[in-house]
Every structure is written in structure tokens, then in C-alpha cells.
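Reminder to self: C-alpha cells first, then the designed residues, so the page reads top to bottom the way the pipeline ran.
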């Protein structure tokens, strides 16, 4: 794990401390995030989950969130969640010319729940994955990566 001036998870855990009544609630997408503190890192992560994991279910959303957190902790990527999300066109929604508004309230709440859980230390179901793509895509350059598996309609790699 890469060390920052302040641990990413520790800093966010402090910011989120009042938002979680119990650790089990963090992973429950039914838990409302309406009144939760929305730090910039959580907002960036929720935005990416909203657009990159929409329609992939709770596990798919959690998996995408963990890939982004894993990247932020890797020396090969920017050292913050927002840095990872905003790095060029790594995530297709950032460069598609469409609105980046999180307009669907239900999807937005699920995305924030997944972001909160990942940033609060929920178990990484991707086992350290740094990459993913839609299962329907056939990107040739993933052949050189260690495949973790398919979760929620996406394929994950280390």
C-alpha cells in the first residue's frame, strides 16, 4: 500500500465518521447517503461509480469503486481518488461530451453508498484489480494482464 502525507483511508474515515452508524451499513446500498458528508474524494469516486458501474448491481458498483481506490494507492497512478478519476480519458464518461450530472437519485445514492464503503475499508472483492472493461468489449491489450474475474458485467484485471 502506498503511503500518503495522510493515509487516504484514514483521512476519509475521519471525514465519514459521523455518517456511519455501524460498519455493516457502509456496504448496504439501501442506506441513504443524503445527509452524509461528501468529501471531494468521495464525490469523485461516487461520480465514477455512477457512470462506470450503472446497472451492474451492488457488487459491480463495489468492484469499480475498489479499482479506483486501488489505483490511488498504487505508485503507477495519481495518488488521490480524484486524480485517478480525472486522469485523461481513463474512464469513458469523462470524454464522451455528455453531461456528468448525477441526475438519477436512486443510482446516485447507490454510487455514494459504494464509494463510502470502499473508502471506509470494505473488503476488496476485486483482489487488488487496477483495470476493468465491460464484458461485452474485447480490448486486446488486456491479454497481458492477470484476470481476476467477472463482476457485475465487467471483467477485472490486476
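Designed residues (158 positions):
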Amino acid at each position: 500500500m502506498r503511503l500518503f502525507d495522510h493515509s487516504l483511508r484514514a483521512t476519509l474515515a475521519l471525514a465519514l465518521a459521523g455518517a456511519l452508524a455501524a460498519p455493516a451499513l457502509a456496504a448496504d446500498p439501501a442506506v441513504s447517503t443524503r445527509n452524509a458528508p461528501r468529501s471531494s474524494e468521495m464525490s469523485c469516486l461516487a461520480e465514477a461509480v455512477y457512470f462506470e458501474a450503472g446497472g451492474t448491481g451492488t457488487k459491480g458498483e463495489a468492484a469499480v469503486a475498489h479499482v479506483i481506490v486501488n489505483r490511488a494507492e498504487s505508485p503507477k497512478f495519481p495518488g488521490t481518488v480524484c486524480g485517478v478519476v480525472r486522469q485523461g480519458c481513463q474512464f469513458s464518461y469523462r470524454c464522451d461530451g455528455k453531461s456528468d450530472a448525477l441526475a438519477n437519485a436512486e443510482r446516485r445514492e447507490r454510487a455514494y453508498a459504494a464509494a463510502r464503503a470502499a473508502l471506509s475499508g470494505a473488503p476488496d472483492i476485486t483482489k487488488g484489480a487496477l483495470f476493468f472493461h465491460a464484458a461485452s468489449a474485447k480490448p486486446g491489450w488486456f491479454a497481458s494482464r492477470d484476470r481476476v474475474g467477472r463482476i457485475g458485467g465487467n471483467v477485472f484485471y490486476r
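The beta strands are 131-134, 147-151, 154-157.
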